[in-house]
Amino acid sequence: MQFRWLIASAVLLTGSHAGAAEVSLRDALAQGAQSSPRIAQARAQAEAAEARARQAGVSPNPEISLEVENFAGTGPYRNVRSAETTLALSQRLELGGKRGARMAVAGAERDAALLAYKRAEADLARDIRIAYAELRAAEDRAVLARDNVAQAEELARSAGLYVEVGRDPPLRKLRADALLAEAKAEQARTFGELLTARRALADLIGSSDSELSSAGFDDGVTPPLLPPATPTLDEQVAAAERDAARARIRVAQADAVPDLTASAGVRRISDGRETAFVAGIALPLPIRDRNRGNIAAAGSDSLAAEAALAQVRLDANRAQHDARMLLGAANERVAALSGPGLAQAEEALRLARIGYAAGKFSLIELIDAQSALNAAREALISARLDRARALAALNRATAQ
Known about the structure:
Blueprint: H1 2-14, E1 21-23, H2 25-35, H3 37-56, E2 63-69, E3 84-93, H4 98-164, H5 170-205, E4 212-214, H6 233-255, E5 260-269, E6 274-282, H7 292-337, H8 340-357, H9 363-397
Parallel strand pairs: 1-4
Antiparallel strand pairs: 2-3, 3-5, 5-6
Helix pairs in contact: 1-5, 2-4, 3-4, 4-5, 4-6, 4-9, 6-7, 7-9, 8-9
């Protein structure tokens, strides 16, 4: 067990800012945008939608056919002398506005895919901001835990000396040893959190460096309030999907109109070596299949997309409001915790140490002063982390 404590302490010391690869938030955002698989996927999907939009405007290919009749039969048709050969070209003519409706759907899907690409970038930026802040908080907690171990070791040494000279009862030494064990356990916990935070950020930005270090909390700039009725990125995606759903109604209605196939060709009659032109048209009879089911389904899908857009608007407004409220509260906490209260807790600990060394304060009073300072520092770390999370959420909620 003691060996594991030593290993954890050694890694914490070597994993400090001096030995780790420091990365700024700006660099992390740029690196993530270049190497993230989710961005690559969204980009490829947008390119695929663009290709489908180009394909949607293409008309059906013409067909060429070769038909041989009246041969290999009986009587005068036992050979190919009476055969008739027809070479024809046919073209399916799309009716009912199929091509235009198809192009409208593909265009709306392309717009939705491009907006989804931007949404993926915004989602990744939010996740990187949060992971970066969590790494910084884990680093600060690891340093705090390391300092606490050093102070607990010094306290245990002092308590042992005072017990030996008879100034304090043996119970004081046991209490100091227990405090040291708690500090080491906390150090091991913060070490695990630090490793997890490093790995999380490295995965998001596509880095293989296992010793990433943040350059500090990056408060960034609070995004301004959006003008009234300004659609957020999520609303734009939902609106594009709504437009695509509406366009699919036109496609379903156009599919109910049968297409006309026109053909023309040349027929050669072997007996007289004569030729003649042939022409024809073919039109399906819409007796059984009028595409009513697909038309009804497309209408329902359009209603669902309209409702989804309304829900996204509600969610977007709530997300902006909640993020701003949380950011304001976090700013107040950071200002309060980093003010005179922290300095007073540090001064109280200094005086408690002097008083304990002079025999005026007990060990319990010194431990209380140390615990109060640790609680203040931990609260400040948590408040800064909450502020970074709220700012990341607000940036995402107001993304355009």
